[in-house]
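Shape matters. Shown next:

___
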Amino acid sequence: DDTIATVQTMPWNYAPWGCGSGPNGSFNNTHMQFEICDDGYKSKEYFEAVYKEACEITAYYCKKYKLDPMGTFVYKGKIVPVITNHDEAHKLGFGNDHSDSNEWMSKFGKTMDDVRRDVAKLMGIEIKEKLLAQRVQMEEDAMKANEEVIAKFEN
């Protein structure tokens, strides 16, 4: 009936089997997860309503747990976004191969970077694209340096 609502079906400290697993393991044990019910990718209005709801609940939990929606962390040697989806989990090797949210979002002009920015805006965080690009480069440089140090000790 096009009603938009959020329903929690299990405690957040329960590890669901939402993204499956990949060759590097699974984000089922590292990320809170939720599903968005789609309408067969038909209605832009419905998409915009559930997108807004998803961003709002994500912002709520980022505030509650003091998570930076634009942030990353290192997990099993990979730089991982705090906010991610099935497709990104799969590309990093931590989820099975399905990209339903990307297909739906791209139809209506949204990406995961838009999600992260919109969540940050809801939290009152000012986003400066140049600073974001610098931070990503710094994290990549740090990862490379860490890998070089580890390689020295392994040899």
